[in-house]
Specification:
Blueprint (H helix, E strand, L loop, with lengths): L1 H45 L4
Length: about 50
C-alpha cells in the first residue's frame, strides 16, 4: 500500500512538472512568434507591401 501511495505522489509531481514546462515553452514560443511578426511587418512596411 505504501509503495502505491509513493508512486501516486511521484506521478502527480511529474504531471505538475510537465504542466509547468509546457506552460513555459508555449509562452516562449508565443513571444518568438510575436517578435517574428513584428519583424515581418517592419520589412513589409519598408518595402511598401501591405
Amino acid at each position: 500500500m505504501y509503495l502505491t501511495e509513493k508512486l501516486k505522489d511521484m506521478e502527480e509531481n511529474i504531471k505538475s512538472i510537465l504542466y509547468e514546462l509546457e506552460k513555459n515553452i508555449s509562452k516562449e514560443i508565443s513571444h518568438e512568434v510575436d517578435f517574428l511578426l513584428t519583424v515581418l511587418k517592419k520589412i513589409c512596411i519598408s518595402q511598401n507591401i501591405k
